[in-house]
Design goal:
Elements (H helix, E strand, L loop, with lengths): L11 E2 L3 H8 L4 H27 L17 E5 L9 E5 L8 H21 L11 E5 L8 E3 L4 E3 L14 H14 L8 H23 L9 E2 L14 E2 L8 E2 L3 E2 L15 H4 L5 H14 L6 H11 L9 H16 L3 H12 L6
Parallel strand pairs: 2-4, 4-6
Antiparallel strand pairs: 1-5, 2-3, 5-6, 7-8, 9-10
Length: 356
């Protein structure tokens, strides 16, 4: 597997470890036990990812005759076991079956491919037609979804805190976007570069949902994972790009810890230096820029972000300031001194990230 800069791909989950840590200490023993099992499985998969990187992952290439403007999707069913990829249940072009989870995974992979293909002219995750593989019904009550450097994996949730992880299309898009980052800037998964890694996935996850629904920036809810939380949970989603820190506030799940500006930047050794937490700051900047520009966010704002991610100048150890400066330079290169540059400049000012 070839990645930008020669760094290893990382194991990325949609539910942050700090959330599962909180659930693992829940008073309800059933909820706590399921969270601990998820944490244990995540640790195992993370170790397996490192071993695969050392030993060498199998090369994945598009099948002969594959079209550049259409995906090559395969969905597998783990049947509540942990063996990947599981039994193949749907291939590219197959008709929908009776399993709604399989159908949602298939559609979500397609929606992600479509945004990158039709908007940014990128042929799949790696730009070279990488087949999109996914496994559903992974584990027992598994409370997560992840990209392991090669494929997507979805749990069914425990039904008490989390529902089926294929329900929000932005979760599918978020995880696949980690693959795009892996094959481009390959941002180190710690601290500010790690938060930028998560940020790009939230941005493109949200854009995939907006693109699928035909929404403008004003129409969008800017939530990541809406529909994922069970009805008993006090919250709307995992994260909010519009209002970081407000996605949930629940007696069992805890309170959304994301900051919206650098004034509240969280310094922690947990969550790989707060990658899922401090991503709220650039997330909010993107929301502000896209909202100021109005219209479809995947167009001007999304194009600037995509061009910086894939342009080759964003280093794997980039800070928020490094990235912000590149977005200003890209806005100026692509659109001149107009409203695009003004919107991006003001967005970073509002979240208090210096641009040099």
């Amino acid at each position: 597997m070839t990645t930008h800069g020669g760094f290893e791909p990382v194991f990325c989950t949609i539910v942050p470890p700090h959330v599962l840590d909180t659930l693992a200490r829940a008073q309800n023993p059933a909820i706590a036990a399921k969270a601990r099992r998820t944490l244990q499985q995540d640790a195992y998969e993370r170790t397996s990812r490192r071993l695969t990187t050392v030993l060498g992952a199998p090369a994945l290439a598009p099948p002969a005759g594959a079209a550049e403007d259409r995906p090559t999707r395969t969905i597998h069913d783990a049947r509540h076991k942990q063996d990947l990829p599981g039994r193949k249940v749907r291939g590219e072009g197959d008709r929908p079956g009776k399993d709604a989870t399989v159908n949602r995974a298939y559609a979500g992979l397609g929606a992600t491919f479509d945004l990158f293909s039709k908007t940014y002219h990128r042929n799949s995750v790696n730009g070279e037609g990488l087949p999109l593989n996914a496994t559903v019904h992974f584990g027992e009550d598994y409370n997560n979804a992840f990209w392991n450097g090669e494929q997507m994996v979805f749990g069914d949730g425990d039904g008490e805190i989390f529902l089926d992880f294929t329900i929000p299309v932005d979760v599918i898009g978020h995880e696949l976007a980690h693959g795009v980052t892996q094959y481009t800037a390959n941002l180190t998964y710690f601290g500010q570069p790690g938060a930028l890694n998560e940020h790009f996935s939230d941005v493109f996850g949200s854009l995939i949902k907006q693109y699928t629904l035909g929404q403008t920036a004003a129409d969008a809810d800017w939530l990541i994972g809406a529909g994922l939380l069970a009805p008993s949970v006090t919250g709307t989603a995992l994260r909010s790009m519009k209002a970081p820190g407000t996605a949930y506030d629940d007696d069992v799940l805890g309170k959304d810890p994301q900051p919206a500006t650098m004034d509240d930047y969280v310094r922690t050794g947990r969550d790989n230096g707060g990658v899922h937490i401090n991503s709220g700051i650039p997330n909010h900047a993107f929301y502000l820029a896209a909202s100021a520009l109005a219209g479809h966010a995947w167009e001007r704002a999304g194009q600037i972000w995509y061009d910086v991610l894939t342009g080759g100048e964003l280093g794997s150890e980039a800070s928020f300031t490094d990235f912000a400066a590149l977005t200003l330079a890209q806005a100026r290169t692509s659109y001149g001194e107009g409203e695009e540059l003004q919107a991006v400049t003001k967005a970073w000012e509002q979240v208090k990230v210096p641009t040099r």
